[in-house]
Design goal:
heterotetramer, A: alpha+beta, Sufe protein. Chain: A, three-stranded antiparallel sheet, 5 helices, 22% strand, B: 396 residues, alpha/beta, Aspartate Aminotransferase, domain 2, Aspartate Aminotransferase, domain 1, seven-stranded mixed sheet, 40% helix, binds pyridoxal-5'-phosphate
């Protein structure tokens, strides 16, 4: 069903947790649809210095969260905003068709966290 | 490393019993004849069919001429419902069933709704039980069929089929029961129950896949679902799947002969599992009825986590189970059964079914009880819905 | 005494090929998982299904997503015809088929006639061939489906399917062909033929019984025949018969890989049998087309005698064959196919089909040619229709 | 399908043939329905001295003819007329349900032959 990369990220997800004094927090999804992703950002000089996630959802939701956080860590806010769900799928080496929405959620989650960060900056 | 494999998904399918397979084997390329053929190859096959039909009849308390082999439990359900509906539409167009039927029943009813039939879907209570009073109230002059599953495939709740059939009989309405999950786990006697139609499936009772049985009480009027040759007394055409029929016969025999012992064994494993999970894992809820429950069914919701992730984690330690989570069904919604008993979406998504079978042992249960708690804990630690409070005690 | 057994009823059913059985065996109680399950047991089963589907697709020249497994050839035929009819009744209610279809097709059409559809049954000539001109003339504005069998199961006549499909395509009418007998004896490529739907059955090509395939060209609109779970991309529910699917895949592969050699072998045996019977037995008539004929089909009428008596006499010397006699069908009339090619009742009653298969040898043919003449002679000596004239020469 | 008695009478039918100077001939059935029985009688002093048959039909038709001719041979005309298809079935030890009409044909055949005999006697 899932390839090795997905299973690896599901079994040993990177960046799990919360950031107490986060600069931005994003939460997308809902219990109804069975997926919730919550992202915590620490930003310095427009660069994502630290990122953590918590995800309620299936293996591909957890793996998408994990790889996405890895991909944007150390990147600028603009670079992070340029990340698409396709990038997430590609980095995972592919997802089964019915699971592609999990990668969309990952894209939405990072955007939502950045939005929150920008709002707080104002 | 030889990984331990513990299969506790027996409600999804079972392995073929060695004795069943043994009886089937000669019918692939030794006694391979077509039972409709006049010659000795055909007569051998016919004889094997007759014996299997007799065994199924005995297992169900039916007459041999009331037993019809189909290609699956799903086909048996489709045939019963569409067959009765189409053959009796001069009498009425109303069907009563429940909200927790298998899709084989529900989607068939929905299809009939598109073609001029009216269907009432009975509610169930928080344990998955229908109300006989509601059933009685749902009956109209136009009701031609009541179809209520014997036992639910997800939560294992057993319905009062005898009573429901009696209500149907009083009103002269045909009564069908999907007994795919009940067979082999509950005593079934069609005459005692007073049902008109009853479906079972081979692969749920250690028989082969691709074979089902529809019991049709003599005198019941129903259309064919499939048209063609003269097989099954012209009611279910297609060259008979002799090997599978033989397997079905043997499986039905074994399931009935050993029923009491099987129920005792399964109940003991089941209760050990239920109690063990309650003891070891907080924030869990047993789904289904505490007592009116299949001897082999365990269904828990684990709060804050999602079922597919749970299944995959269990799979990695060799445990094969199933879940009512949407992610495992390919649909967006979680199991309609869990919703019907009133679970919230998120609780439904976190459900786990462990369905036991003859292949399971005490060691299997112990292994599950050892592996499950840390897996649940790990997934909860990933979940934003779950917060560890100070002092290490868990709470929401 | 070890009696010789010669099975020449391969059009009724075939033994499962040893290589097919070998591939099936692990799926009964080792890899017994339900392909819909998330865990490793399920994934193994799913993988086997995918491989089998790929093999069938390659065998038919189709895409994998155009291959749907059913519970029999009969079910595939029913699904194609009822499915297209019900899904397209907004466009029209007229179906064209032939008088010599299998009952799976004919009885389905008759059922649809009772439900508001109109069916034209095309005639065939004395050899069993349809006329393309008659087909064209039968088409109306309301025609939604043309279903013509690829090769006939009794007399082996092969129809010009490519041409017929072309006519259908020009008029934008769906075209289905029952290829249950053609498969494995004729080259089939759905794209080259240009058909929209095509049925095959496992047990006619050394695969298992209880499995069929319906090829559905992408884009064809048809209703489900069976409703339920999400299997076969929601189009044919019911827990997949994994072992049989695996068997079907292997059988389809073998049937296509060895097709040319098989056709050569069968043709040689067939012609030896046909010529041998003509040489040894007077008052016989070959039924079906002399050249447009399945490589494995021999069908003779023996005047003055009745088919079942012939079959039983052959059976007593170990030869398994079949007949279009009424006595062997359980109905009062002889085969509708033999009647459609214009045989009188009594000639039709005296028909014998010898259908060859991979298991047959030259010695089998010689044995038949040795045993058949005295049997025919004995039965004729009992028959009031047959009179021996002086000098030993036979005449009517 | 058939029991041993039926198979024995099918394989070794008694009284096959024709009687050149028969006192009565009966023929029932038709090629359409796949069964024709032709019965030849030789009667002396109201007793069936000889009987022969020819049958076009399935195994049970041939067996029914055979056993029926055996049963009435040596009997009086009245006794032969009293023979029912059930007697034929019983003597054969049973016939499959769809084949019972063959025994009816045997009953009809002997009646028809006796009728012909009576007509000729007048
Ligand atoms: C031409 C044809 N169509 C359909 C069928 C039905 O196939 P099955 O018996 O596998 O359902 C058969 C064989 O019985 C056949 O010969
Ligand atoms: C209650 C119930 N009914 C019907 C079915 C359908 O049986 P099958 O998959 O054999 O068609 C199942 C199992 O899938 C079931 O659990």
């Amino acid at each position: 069903m899932y390839n090795e990369t997905v299973m690896e990220h599901f079994t040993n997800p990177r960046n799990v947790g919360e950031i107490e004094d986060a600069d931005g927090i994003g939460e997308v999804g809902s219990p109804q649809c069975g997926d919730i992703m919550k992202i915590f950002l620490k930003v310095e000089d427009n660069i994502i210095k630290d990122i953590k996630f918590k995800t309620f959802g299936c293996a591909s939701a957890i793996a998408s969260s994990s790889i996405m956080t890895d991909m944007v860590k150390g990147k600028t806010i603009e670079e992070a905003l340029a990340l698409t769900n396709k990038d997430v799928v590609d980095a995972l080496g592919g997802l089964p068709k019915p699971k592609v929405h999990c990668s969309v959620l990952a894209e939405e989650a990072i955007r939502s966290a950045i939005e929150d960060y920008k709002k707080k900056m104002k | 490393m030889t990984k331990r494999r513990v299969y506790v998904d027996n409600s999804a399918t079972t392995p073929v019993h060695p004795q069943v397979l043994e009886e089937m084997l000669p019918f692939f390329n030794e006694n391979f004849g077509n039972p409709s053929s006049v010659h000795s190859f055909g007569r051998q096959a016919k004889k094997a069919m007759d014996k299997a039909r007799e065994r199924v009849a005995v297992a169900l308390g039916a007459k041999t001429e009331e037993i019809f082999f189909t290609g699956s439990g799903t086909e048996a359900d489709n045939w019963a419902v569409k067959g009765v509906a189409l053959a009796n539409k001069d009498k009425g167009n109303h069907i009563i069933t429940t909200k927790i039927e298998h899709h084989a029943l529900l989607h068939t009813c929905e299809y009939l709704e598109k073609h001029g039939f009216e269907v009432t879907y009975l509610d169930v209570d928080e344990y998955g039980l229908i109300s006989l009073k509601q059933l009685e109230e749902a009956i109209k002059d136009s009701t031609i069929l009541i179809s209520i599953m014997f036992a639910n495939n997800e939560i294992g709740t057993i319905q009062p089929i005898g009573e429901a059939a009696r209500i149907a009989k009083e009103k002269e309405i045909y009564f069908h029961t999907d007994s795919v999950q009940a067979m082999g786990n509950v005593k079934i006697d069609v005459k005692e129950l007073g049902v008109d139609l009853l479906s079972i499936s081979g692969h749920k009772i250690m028989g082969p896949k691709g074979i089902g049985v529809l019991y049709i009480r003599k005198g019941v009027r129903l259309d064919n679902l499939i048209h063609g040759g003269a097989q099954e007394r012209r009611r279910r055409p297609g060259t008979e799947n002799v090997a599978a029929v033989v397997g079905m016969g043997k499986a039905a025999q074994l399931a009935t002969e050993n029923l009491e012992q099987h129920i005792r064994d399964m109940t003991s494993l089941r209760d050990k599992l239920i109690n063990g999970i309650y003891e070891r894992i907080p924030h869990v809820k047993l789904n289904g009825h505490p007592t009116e429950r299949l001897a082999n069914n365990v269904n828990f919701s684990f709060e804050f986590i999602e079922g597919e992730a749970l299944l995959l984690s269990l799979d990695m330690v060799g445990i094969a189970a199933s879940s009512g989570s949407a992610c495992t069904s390919g649909s967006l919604d979680p199991s309609h059964v869990l919703m019907a008993i009133g679970l919230s979406h998120e609780i439904a998504h976190g459900s786990l079914r462990l369905s036991l079978g003859e292949i399971n042992t005490d060691e299997d249960v112990e292994y599950i009880l050892e592996q499950l708690p840390p897996i649940v804990e790990r997934l909860r630690s990933l979940s934003p819905l779950f917060k560890q409070c100070e002092g290490g005690k868990v709470s929401v």
